[in-house]
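Entry for the shared binder. Reason: the reviewer on the internal report wants the predicted structure included alongside the sequence.
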Amino acid sequence: MGRYGKILIVKLGSIGDVVNTLPLVNVLRDGFPRAEIAWVIEPKSYPIVAGLRSVNRFIVHHRGGGWRAARSALGEIRGFKPELVIDLQRILRSSFFTRFSGGRVRLGFDRRRSKEFSWIFTNRKLPPAGREKHMVLQYLEFAEYLGLPLPETPRFELPVGEADRAAGRDLIPEEFAGSGFVACNIGAAKPANRWPVRRWAELIDLIHSRGEEAVVLTGGAEDRTRAREIAGRVADRKRLFEGAGRTSLKQLGGVFTLARAVVSGDSGPMHIASALGVRTIGIFGPADPARTGPFNHLDLVVRSEAECAPCGRRRCRRARCLEELAAEKVLARIFPEVGCG
């Protein structure tokens, strides 16, 4: 498909989506070692990839800034003068940057996998394919289209360094280091993906009942109230630390690298943990783990058996799928020796 001196990736989106883009970015860097690679991204996701060696430049689009912010980002894009633009976001907002980028080759998903008519704004498209396989593999189809060899094992290389691990060590109580701890990431951007408070409390009590293991609750600042509610239901508060909202994204990754395992619903932190190679147990109800599960740990996913799951909904009043998912099933993934009960 030719050689490109300047490549622009348009992936604005969620933290998990951005993490799942990394294997493609690394293949592009290997395949085009002399190319300049730029990435259009939004502020919420940028911190987790800042410093990524495979990318020469990030163009941060401040979505809340309206037309002025969009025009500023577009000015940077056009100043970069990309030859190849890869639109991974497949929505109208990303299409704006793709269409007016000035790139002669604008590559996107096929029509069936696009949204909001975004397929109209690209002039090259992936061959039609199903939407069932994992997003990491769907993104890697772009590398295949460009004729680039794929590694046997996708590489994430998330830029979480020693300073981030040190921040994690400083945050966690010293006594937790000796006994080991399980990180429970209690938040999720989509409300329907949040395991109920009482189930988290049940799981923590089960973990504590095994012996000396402690539990660290993680999440964003918006999860602090939820963390307090969970802590209020736990029998042994001395072996529980509320860490929600106390770290940056990279520092959160640092905390995860110190944990025996990470338990999380479908969320950005779940993908961070799995990309770092930490044993990651994903709790899934409405979301489909075949598409958005923790890529390196799909065998550890705990799925709801409700007939309505996966439905893909953002909100659900009944939330039956996760309500019925027992803590014992999750415990068996954290500690396989306990069995399924």
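Summary line for the report: The mean pLDDT is 92.
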